[in-house]
């Protein structure tokens, strides 16, 4: 029983981190129909920012979240301006973005690998190896903090999207660009900012990832598939779906890892991806395409 | 003196396709209501889209209050005071009614004014007030229509363009919709109406504009168009036989 609770809590903590990792991906898809395969490499970029800030000036990775977010957002805005904006009107845009972002991911991966080499790194703040006990349940602080911080950021994002004028404009744009334009929304600007926010979320996730996983530039390939399975379960474009998908799959994969075999835990993501695409391709809360 | 809206020799079309609107000119004065009629494929909807800025004109110019708008973005044109209600229901079906109304008032910078306008619109359409938390797409067709027309009263544009307001509506709703349009017109907003139901459209409008193959055929006071037997046969088609 205790082992079960232990695995459940760790799974939920990790689930929130996964949710943060995919929240930007799903936001960008929802607003712009960009399937951003470069999202995981942007998370790695965020992790590198936090890593170097920690190594060079000793800044705690949780405190470096805003910086990692801003740096990656700036990078994202440049990518968006260079690659996506001029193609936005094309008919095959959404399909095209898969190739464009795949290429972008390869380029960034190549640059990072060249500069930093593919050695495993991890940020090691004091709490990274610490843990607390609640009764007999053992909770590593790194997982606990990263889960808490992720949930705070996700709630913040949800509140922003639900209640602010700009957030409503983002949701309106994701439903129907033309209708949004016709009520006076500057759709191009909304897209640019949404892409920036999505990338900032990747950067923020990167800061957390830097101390709960070890990372190296080429690790993003492995994350692409996992992240896709999370958003596909929840439904592409739905934040609620992404959060639920991330937590469910994280818990299930932790359970499988603990009670069956760690070798099978990654399988959960792919198996679920496989099943969802057969049974309910638009996911649990997926948006319908226009 | 300049009219409110001047369309001069407008030509427009889609992608690499042929010109749909050809060398079309029209003026609209303050508080005027003009109904554009013509057969399918005459270019009526395309004309409205070019004015709204969703479709960039190929040549010609559009002046609004003397200012050239034909190169502006759709959201800028809307903010100047031209509101376009396209054929598909112009609401956000997955947002709540309250959020839809907030989006209607999105272009109003002063938040207090925006709130007051939303309140006004709710007074006008009390049903919306009772359903603020409901997802707009789950309301009945008539209620969704009210939400569409609430926009006109929220932003108080100078011109409102309505594309096929009665398309796909039940007869009782057609009546309700034309009442909304009359209401809008009587509040001093100029209206350009494109309507399949030509007779009903012309009864609401001051002027009838006949368009065919992208060109202006003629423009006359709506009453004359309705009374002229040969015109009725030519352009109002089967409506005559009823």
TrEMBL record, chain A:
<feature type="transmembrane region" description="Helical">
    <location>
        <begin position="256"/>
        <end position="279"/>
    </location>
</feature>
<dbReference type="Pfam" id="PF02653">
    <property type="entry name" value="BPD_transp_2"/>
</dbReference>
<keyword id="KW-0813">Transport</keyword>
<keyword id="KW-0812">Transmembrane</keyword>
<feature type="transmembrane region" description="Helical">
    <location>
        <begin position="223"/>
        <end position="249"/>
    </location>
</feature>
<dbReference type="GO" id="GO:0005886">
    <property type="term" value="C:plasma membrane"/>
</dbReference>
<feature type="transmembrane region" description="Helical">
    <location>
        <begin position="65"/>
        <end position="84"/>
    </location>
</feature>
<feature type="transmembrane region" description="Helical">
    <location>
        <begin position="41"/>
        <end position="59"/>
    </location>
</feature>
<comment type="similarity">
    <text>Belongs to the binding-protein-dependent transport system permease family. LivHM subfamily.</text>
</comment>
<keyword id="KW-0029">Amino-acid transport</keyword>
<keyword id="KW-1133">Transmembrane helix</keyword>
<dbReference type="InterPro" id="IPR001851">
    <property type="entry name" value="ABC_transp_permease"/>
</dbReference>
<protein>
    <submittedName>
        <fullName>Branched-chain amino acid ABC transporter permease</fullName>
    </submittedName>
</protein>
<dbReference type="InterPro" id="IPR052157">
    <property type="entry name" value="BCAA_transport_permease"/>
</dbReference>
<feature type="transmembrane region" description="Helical">
    <location>
        <begin position="137"/>
        <end position="161"/>
    </location>
</feature>
<feature type="transmembrane region" description="Helical">
    <location>
        <begin position="6"/>
        <end position="29"/>
    </location>
</feature>
<dbReference type="GO" id="GO:0022857">
    <property type="term" value="F:transmembrane transporter activity"/>
</dbReference>
<keyword id="KW-0472">Membrane</keyword>
<dbReference type="GO" id="GO:0006865">
    <property type="term" value="P:amino acid transport"/>
</dbReference>
<feature type="transmembrane region" description="Helical">
    <location>
        <begin position="96"/>
        <end position="117"/>
    </location>
</feature>
<keyword id="KW-1003">Cell membrane</keyword>
<feature type="transmembrane region" description="Helical">
    <location>
        <begin position="189"/>
        <end position="217"/>
    </location>
</feature>
């Amino acid at each position: 029983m205790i082992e079960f609770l232990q695995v459940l809590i760790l799974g939920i903590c990790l689930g929130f981190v996964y949710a943060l990792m995919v929240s930007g991906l799903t936001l960008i898809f929802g607003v712009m129909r960009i399937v951003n395969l470069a999202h995981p490499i942007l998370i790695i970029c965020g992790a590198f920012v936090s890593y170097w800030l920690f190594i060079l000036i000793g800044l705690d990775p949780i405190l470096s979240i805003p910086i990692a977010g801003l740096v990656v957002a700036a990078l994202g805005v440049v990518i968006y301006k260079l690659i996506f904006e001029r193609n936005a009107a094309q008919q095959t845009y959404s399909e095209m973005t898969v190739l464009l972002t795949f290429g972008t991911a390869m380029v960034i991966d190549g640059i990072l690998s060249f500069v930093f080499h593919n050695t495993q790194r991890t940020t090691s703040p004091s709490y990274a190896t610490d843990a607390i006990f609640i009764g007999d349940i053992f909770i590593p602080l790194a997982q606990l903090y990263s889960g808490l911080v992720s949930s705070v950021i996700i709630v913040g994002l949800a509140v922003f999207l639900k209640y602010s004028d700009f957030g409503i404009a983002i949701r309106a744009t994701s439903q129907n660009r033309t209708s949004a334009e016709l009520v006076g929304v500057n759709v191009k600007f909304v897209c640019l900012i949404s892409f920036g926010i999505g990338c900032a979320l990747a950067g923020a996730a990167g800061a957390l990832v830097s101390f709960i996983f070890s990372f190296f530039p080429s690790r993003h390939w492995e994350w692409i598939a996992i992240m896709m399975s999370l958003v596909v379960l929840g439904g592409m474009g739905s934040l609620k779906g992404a959060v639920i998908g991330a937590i469910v799959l994280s818990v299930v994969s932790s359970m499988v890892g603990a009670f069956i075999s760690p070798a099978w835990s990654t399988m959960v993501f792919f198996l679920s991806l496989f099943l969802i695409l057969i049974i309910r391709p638009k996911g649990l809360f997926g948006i319908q395409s226009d | 003196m300049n009219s409110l809206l001047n369309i001069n020799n407008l030509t427009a079309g889609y992608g690499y396709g042929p010109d749909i609107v050809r060398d079309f000119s029209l003026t609209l004065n303050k508080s005027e209501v003009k109904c554009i009629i013509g057969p399918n494929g005459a270019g009526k909807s395309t004309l409205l889209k070019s004015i709204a800025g969703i479709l960039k004109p190929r040549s010609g110019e559009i002046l609004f209050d003397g200012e050239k708008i034909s190169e502006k973005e759709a959201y800028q044109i809307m903010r100047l005071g031209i509101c376009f209600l396209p054929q598909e229901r112009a609401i956000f079906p997955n947002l709540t009614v309250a959020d839809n109304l907030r989006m209607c008032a999105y272009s109003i910078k002063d938040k207090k004014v925006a709130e007051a306008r939303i309140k006004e619109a709710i007074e006008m359409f009390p049903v919306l007030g009772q359903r603020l938390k409901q997802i707009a797409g789950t309301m009945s067709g008539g209620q969704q229509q009210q939400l569409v027309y609430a926009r006109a009263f929220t932003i108080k544009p100078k011109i409102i363009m309505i594309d096929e307001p009665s398309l796909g509506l039940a007869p009782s709703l057609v009546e309700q919709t034309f009442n909304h349009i009359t209401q809008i017109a009587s509040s001093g907003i100029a209206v350009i109406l494109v309507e399949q139901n030509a007779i009903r459209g012309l009864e609401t409008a001051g002027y009838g504009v006949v368009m065919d193959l992208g060109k202006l055929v003629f423009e006359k006071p709506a009453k004359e168009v309705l009374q002229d037997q040969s015109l009725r046969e030519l352009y109002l088609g089967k409506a005559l036989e009823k």
